[in-house]
Amino acid sequence: MSTIAFSKDLITELPYLRRFARGLCGDASLADDLVQDCVERALMKSHLYDPARPLRAWLYAVLRNIYVSNWRRNSKFTGAKNLDDLEGFEGAVQPEQENNFSVALITDALDNLPAQQREVLILISLEEMSYQQAAEIIGVPIGTIMSRLSRARAHLQNILEERGTPVLRRVK
Amino acid sequence: MTYETVENWALHAFADGELEGDERKAMERLLAENEEARKALAAITYQKAELRKAYGNTIDEAVPLSLLASAQRRSSRGILPYAAMVASVSLVLLGGFGGWYAAHQSGSLQAADLARRALIAHEVFSVEVKHPFEVAANEQDHLQKWLSKRVGAEFKIPDLNTDGFALLGGRLLAGENSPAGQLMYEAEDKQRLTVFISANDDGKDEALRLEENGQFITCYWRDGKLAMAVTGEMAKDDMMALAKNIYDQMDKKS
Residue B198: enclosing H or E segment and its boundaries? Predict the structure, then answer.
């Protein structure tokens, strides 16, 4: 595949890369930094891409690898919030913000998932990657994907139920 | 809670579209009979919908220009910023300028510039589907005479059939000092190869060199009246052998 053809295909994948990055780290501007690094790395490594395979999954693997190495180097990438922050957030919710409430609830719940569960959940529930693709992107067996996914969903569900649905909170 | 008690992988697999055939039918039956399973599925579906609500609209947002610009910029590995800039400009002009070509350097073509010009011209035109060349291979004599005249140095069109590449045609490339020519070849698997030909203005000879840029390999040399380069995507050894073949054919001519 020529560099020009690769670059064109890369451009069409940018919206998906941005969504994936945002789902992974939860912060729009960090996410775009991540996509920027991913694009540069992808162009540099484009000769390693096998055009017979889906480009999106390959790019997700590139982006995810950058994210994981930044995670280890840089704590600002963890995204996880402590409980105090969450309580502060809950107290700050105003009635007129209720439309944004469920979004804030799910994103805060996500921030409380262990990173390994979050990435699997995002790849499958948001990005609709197959279990096989997720296994390849993360580099673990498919069984590991399934058990992390099931734990992630149970974990998320617990957090959502503990904090109640928006409707219940309004009644309270 | 219902979610944990019915938690099993088949339900997740069903929710994620991973079940097919009998497994899928079995899960549909279970769902029809079992309310706990339905609740568990609803919880998964609810989470998915919430995730989409939170992040899904990213897809419809305009992609920041800085990201678009990065995606258009080619690999910087092994390439000087100048060439990277010219390459990105050439992307923009690809549609409208059939024979557009950038050659900002003054004086004679230096070897490094030769390689870069050849690479850029390769990238611009080897992806052309409708107009990969101006004069087709069936007018080979005309092509040879025309390009020799315009380039300002007589050359013979290399025969690369033994390397598995057939001539498609050629085109003239504009340059600041003198025009250059590009010959395009194609293998059976549609892989393309270009030969770049220009006049060796200062007449200095330079031995065959090889430059690697991403997946592209360019071999180039200056010999007598000609400064030439060949660019394609193949193993280094194969490209060196092919360049040597072209070099030998040119040598016989002079």
Answer: strand B192-199
Sort residue A116 into left (φ over 0), alpha (ψ -120 to 50) or beta: alpha
pLDDT in tens, B5-29: 444 788 999 999 999 999 899 999 9
Question: Of A78, A73, A43, A77, nearest to A58 (Cα)?
Answer: A43
**Structure tokens that stand for A124 in this block:** 């499958």
Contact B4 A154 (CB under 8 A): yes
Domains of chain A: 3-77 (1.10.1740), 83-171 (1.10.10.10)
Measured distance CA(A109)–CA(A163) in Å, rounded = 9
Highest mean pLDDT among A44-53, A115-124, B34-43, B92-101: A115-124
Helices (H) and strands (E) counted in chain B, each on its own, are: 9, 7
Q: In this complex, do B54 and A7 lie within 8 Å of one another by their Cβ atoms?
A: no
Helix A3-25 and helix B65-72, axial crossing angle in degrees, nearest 10: 140
Nearest to B168 by CA among B136, B206, B212: B136
Instruction: Give the pair of three-digit tokens for residue B231.
Output: 């660019």
Give percent above pLDDT 70 in chain B.
80
- Measured CA to CA, the distance from residue A73 to residue B71 in angstroms comes to 25
Range with top average pLDDT, A94-98, B100-104, B169-173: B169-173
SS3 label, residue B166: strand
Q: Which of residues 160-219 of B touch A (CB under 8 A)?
A: 214-216
Q: Where are the alpha helices (DSSP H) in chain B?
A: 2-5, 9-15, 21-33, 35-55, 65-72, 81-93, 111-125, 140-151, 236-253
Confidence of residue A86 (pLDDT cuts 50, 70, 90): very low
Distance CA B110, CA B227 (A): 9
Instruction: At A112, list the tokens.
Output: 């409380």
* Cβ–Cβ below 8 Å for A46 and B75: yes
3-state secondary structure of A55: helix
